[in-house]
């Protein structure tokens, strides 16, 4: 296929020839508008095929998604190349420069300039996603466990050998990903270099309205600020696990064995809340139990989340959302269960795709996904290349902010709790601990996910060291260690969705800090007085209006401007999270005072 026979903006070819003659700003504006129209057309066709593949994985749906994916890639890549050429002109305004950069950075996986390379890259992407999503652990023939089954067991099991078996079992799906993954790295690195970036890591890091290097430095700064809280938490959890499991199971070097955290990836630890709190366990409520007692099904859980957004003054979701979403795991076919939110036509065709389970965790995930949907709908009038969150972290933070308001006071207000939780210190510490086990424990995990990929993309870690480099980072940043020896016959990064799914992960790191900042501001707007963990913005039209304004702006201006309009700040500020957990930090210091912390 000849690239220029594709439905590319007519302007592009003509423009490039005459770019030096024309006014560069006028050319850039016309190109940006045309590029947006071209992109949304192919994005719609690709999204339809993607939806079908994601909700029904077969050989045929995979072929269909490869076809539309290839077409999409070729078009997006061509637009990116043209934007790159236009960027070489002198006299561009900052706005036009930024807009052209959005197009240049708009390819998910840039391929080198050949149809064969593009096809290969798209095929690898679909293949990896298939391997992950249909992967199972079969302890014996005819008895296979899905990830979902294993996650559920892991969150409640306290039997170290069962936990280790599931932990190791799930990772048997990953070794076949190693070779295609390494080829994906090779191809996309070349594609990123062709567009003027150092490598794929640089390509990802350049999406934050600053240079890739400046962004790396910001990440280090954020982490340095949050680290002391994580270290206190890690120390306490390590000590409690040692009390519970004893020296036979614990390594005795200050590290936490990954299989004992109640989570398949040791990324969020609230599953082991009881072990961690021991005799101090005074959880203010148990939402999983409430869902069961009130017989709330999956749809009722989604309706509950929608109701929160509506209480802020936002519109209800369209009927098509309810008709087209996948809420529960189909019994008769393979699907991608990892939760996601879609806007198929970049307008009103909003959907979520989940395999909802009736648990408190899933209530949080539903709010998270609806956050994506509400954001998507708010910025739908923007140019396609401005349809996105202020920076990728904002998209991931939006629904989580709402979920921070799903607390005891809120559950009482909507009638799911008979009384608001008592404000006694023990109950409060238990509540803060539970949240910290998810939000604070998550930070170094998120950091490792992309630090590892940045090293791989930069060629500092080659395929022969993938697993060793992964565990080196996990141990260094998280103080988490594998339950059994690992070597290069394993490919443990592949057992986490976002690696085969090729989703950058710094977005979640940022989101975990940002959500406390946004929560703080919205609580102020809602007129809340007192500790932030007791604040719910439920029903606050003031908070809702501010949130809406932030969402409507999409990615149309530097994220620092959008944040400033919202809260007056121009940077991600970890101190919001630290303030929120300040009482817990004090409590942890007391608990840890005679302990040897660190690893
Ligand atoms: O992948 C997700 C969402 C979809 S964007 C369910 N999250 C990360 C994960 O599961 O690893 C949300 C928190 C982190
Ligand atoms: Zn998300």
From TrEMBL:
Keyword entries, A-Z: Disulfide bond, Glycoprotein, Metal-binding, Signal, Zinc
Repressor listed as a keyword: no
Name of a matching Pfam family: Peptidase_M2
Disulfide bonds, paired cysteine numbers: 138-144, 337-355, 523-535
Residues that, per the record, bind chloride: 208, 507
GO cellular component term of the entry, any: membrane
Residues binding Zn(2+) 2, per UniProt: 368, 372, 396
A biological-process GO annotation: proteolysis
Highest taxon, organism lineage: Bacteria
Binding site for Zn(2+) 1: 368, 372, 396
InterPro entries hit by this protein: Peptidase_M2
GO MF term (any one): peptidyl-dipeptidase activity
Span of the signal peptide: 1-22
Residues annotated as catalytic: 369, 498
Name under which the protein is recorded: Peptidyl-dipeptidase
UniProt source species: Halioglobus japonicus
């Amino acid at each position: 296929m000849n690239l220029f026979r594709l439905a590319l903006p007519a302007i592009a070819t003509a423009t490039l020839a005459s770019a030096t003659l024309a006014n560069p700003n006028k050319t850039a504006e016309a190109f940006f508008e045309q590029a947006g129209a071209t992109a949304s057309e192919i994005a719609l066709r690709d999204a339809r095929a993607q939806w079908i593949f994601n909700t029904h994985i077969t050989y045929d749906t995979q072929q269909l998604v490869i076809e539309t994916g290839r077409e999409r890639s070729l078009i997006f890549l061509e637009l990116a190349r043209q934007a790159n050429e236009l960027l070489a002109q002198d006299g561009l305004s900052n706005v036009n420069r930024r807009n052209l950069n959005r197009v240049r950075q708009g390819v998910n996986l840039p391929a080198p300039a050949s149809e064969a390379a593009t096809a290969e890259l798209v095929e690898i992407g679909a293949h990896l996603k298939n391997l992950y999503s249909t992967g199972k652990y079969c302890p014996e023939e005819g008895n296979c466990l899905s990830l979902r089954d294993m996650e559920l067991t892991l969150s409640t099991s306290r039997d170290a050998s069962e936990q280790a078996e599931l932990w190791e079992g799930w990772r048997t799906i990953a070794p076949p990903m190693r070779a295609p993954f390494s080829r994906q790295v090779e191809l996309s690195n070349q594609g990123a270099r062709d567009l003027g970036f150092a490598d794929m890591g640089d390509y990802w890091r350049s999406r934050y309205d600053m240079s890739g290097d400046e962004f790396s430095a910001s990440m280090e700064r954020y982490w340095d600020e949050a680290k002391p809280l994580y270290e206190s938490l890690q120390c306490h959890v390590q000590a409690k696990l040692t009390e519970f499991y004893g020296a036979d199971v614990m390594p005795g070097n200050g590290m936490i064995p990954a299989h004992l955290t109640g989570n398949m990836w040791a990324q969020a630890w609230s599953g082991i809340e009881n072990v961690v709190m021991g005799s101090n366990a005074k959880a203010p409520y148990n939402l999983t139990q409430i869902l069961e007692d009130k017989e709330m099904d999956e749809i009722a859980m989604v309706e509950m989340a929608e109701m929160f957004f509506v209480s802020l003054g936002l519109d209800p979701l369209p009927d098509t959302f309810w008709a087209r979403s996948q809420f529960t795991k189909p019994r008769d076919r393979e699907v991608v269960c990892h939760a996601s939110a879609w806007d198929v036509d970049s307008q009103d065709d909003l959907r979520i795709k989940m395999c909802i389970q009736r648990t408190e965790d899933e209530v949080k995930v539903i709010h998270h996904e609806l956050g994506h949907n509400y954001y998507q709908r708010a910025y739908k009038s923007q140019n396609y290349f401005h349809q996105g969150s202020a920076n990728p972290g904002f998209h991931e933070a939006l629904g989580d902010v709402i979920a921070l308001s799903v607390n005891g006071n809120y559950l009482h207000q909507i009638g799911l709790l008979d009384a608001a939780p008592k404000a006694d210190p023990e109950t409060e510490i238990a509540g803060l601990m539970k949240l910290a086990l998810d939000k604070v424990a998550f930070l170094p995990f998120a950091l490792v996910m992309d630090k590892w990929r940045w090293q791989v993309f930069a060629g500092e870690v080659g395929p022969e060291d993938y697993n060793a480099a992964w565990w080196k980072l996990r141990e260094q940043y998280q103080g988490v260690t594998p339950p059994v020896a690992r070597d290069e016959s394993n490919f443990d990064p592949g057992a986490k969705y976002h690696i085969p799914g090729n989703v950058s992960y710094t977005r979640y790191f940022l989101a975990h800090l940002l959500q406390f900042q946004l929560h703080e501001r919205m609580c102020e707007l809602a007129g809340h007085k007192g500790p932030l963990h007791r604040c719910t913005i439920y029903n606050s039209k003031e908070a809702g209006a501010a949130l809406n304004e932030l969402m409507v702006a999409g990615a149309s201006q530097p994220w620092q401007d959008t944040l400033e309009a919202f809260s007056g700040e121009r940077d991600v500020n970890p101190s919001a999270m630290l303030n929120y957990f300040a009482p817990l930090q004090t409590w942890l210091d007391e608990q840890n005072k005679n302990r040897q912390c660190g690893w």
